[in-house]
Amino acid sequence: MKKLLGIIVLGLLLSGNAYAKEIILDKCYPSFRESFNSNQLNHYYYNIDTSKKIMNSVVNWKKKQENAPKVNIVQYNLKYIDNNFIEGFVAEKDGASTSIKIVVDLNDKTISYDGGLLITCE
């Protein structure tokens, strides 16, 4: 009986991250553009870590923009995750969530922000 209980406990401990995954949405661009602009950008992608419930957007410009960093990284705290949609909020530097909501449609590979901005990824 102790062996069976030990096997069950060990199995539960090892299966804790079975559903955790990392999702990358690459070559992203805002809806007012027709496609990813490789002339201006090296990278624009979203990295979603479902186990840590965070998402990062990374924009890497080929040339540094005036009054902006060459690489811009924004972190998001995720509140809802399923196989189709993810909902979250932009994170402050201290990790607290702001009121700026984002919704990721994993089927369409789109990210919509409060205020109407729509990002599409290839």
Explain the overall architecture.
The chain has 122 residues and is mainly beta. The protein has one domain (19-121). Helix content is 11%, strand content 48%.
Short description:
The chain has one helix spanning 2-14; strands at residues 22-25, 28-30, 41-49, 54-61, 71-81, 85-91, 97-105, 110-113, 118-121. It is mostly beta strands and 122 residues long. Strands 1-3-4-5-6-7-8-9-2 form a nine-stranded antiparallel sheet, with no helix packed on it.
Task: List strands and helices in order, with pairings.
Layout: H1 2-14, E1 22-25, E2 28-30, E3 41-49, E4 54-61, E5 71-81, E6 85-91, E7 97-105, E8 110-113, E9 118-121
Antiparallel strand pairs: 1-3, 2-9, 3-4, 4-5, 5-6, 6-7, 7-8, 8-9
